[in-house]
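I am still getting used to backbone structure tokens and would like to learn alongside you. To get us started, please write out a protein record for me. Once you have written the record down, we can walk along the chain together.
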Amino acid sequence: MLIWIIFFISLALSLIFNGYMENIFIVLATVMIYKQITSKKDYKYMVYALIISFIGVNCMILFGFRNYISFKDVQPGIEKEDTLVLLVSEGESKKYNLKERSTQIYYEKGYKSLFTGIKDLYTYKNYYNQLGESDFKEKTEEVTKKLSYQLGDGYKVVNSYMYTKPYFEDSLEDIVSKGYKKIIICPLFMTDGKDYEIFKQRYEKLNLVSYNLAGIEILDPFYKSNNLAMVYKNEILKNIRALDKDSGLLLIGLHNKNNLEEDILFREKIKEYINHEEKNLDVQIKLPLLENNKKDIIKSGEELLEYGIDTLYVVLPTCTIDTMYTKHLVESILEDLDMGNTKFYYIDPEKKMDAIVDELFTRISLMNQIGG
């Protein structure tokens, strides 16, 4: 039975590790199964070994591999006059990182990851294998630099994340220790959805009241942003006008990650802007949902094709910064929508980061005008 356990554990670990560690566990699993088959040929305890190994590896993921994030009790430094602007986003490492993805799975699924950890990590690893490196941090650094430039003197802009380093708890710990009292937290989320709720839960556990801060302000998600909706509208119309062909448009929402009502409101806003500006433009628009409603997208795409369109545009407007997860979803949609001679295009506005910066700058400026 021990050989079976070693085999199944090695096999599971080869699925979630990458690089040389993956190869080591593949070799070990191969040796174990060869030894089991050629010598003992005993299959009586194979199912028990599978169950024990499955539970064991998932426990490793939940309790052993993940990062433990905490806010240490720090001594505030000399008070600074500058306002500290802390950006908080999902976060994603450039290359596959088992510990950080284990941490994300823990926060998103809790103890359910005892049953899904291996599958979830294997899925994340495949995203990286298929799509290459993530540019998430590059995008957020772009927002940080541009916002810092716009705000100018009197402000310090710091980047932090929920699921990759630096974690926002660690950033806040550093901020308090350096003596910042005026803090504005800017969550980079489209809606008050799953990740935003996790952020609020983690933030409330910090108990920052004892540090006598002047008042921490937390900005709302972006779903109300007219500016961001206009950027999507402009980019969509630019593409449609460039080809000058009968077009269809899928404005796809994120059902699992977003607040559904807010998600729909933002997409309806983009649709309204398009229809208002181009009343004579014949564009068929659908607003399907992604993830577990993928059939809804395929159905919407097929309905648009019935209009005889030449070009179909796919847009994912309710995600501020694309992750490997959303990129994979888009890739799979385009594959499933591969029908006939109709051409498909994914639209991600070039000026989206600029629009996010402008929105943050406007909100922070208005906040300070009202406050003082």
Notes: Strands lie at 80-89, 155-161, 180-187, 215-218, 247-251, 283-286, 311-315, 343-347.
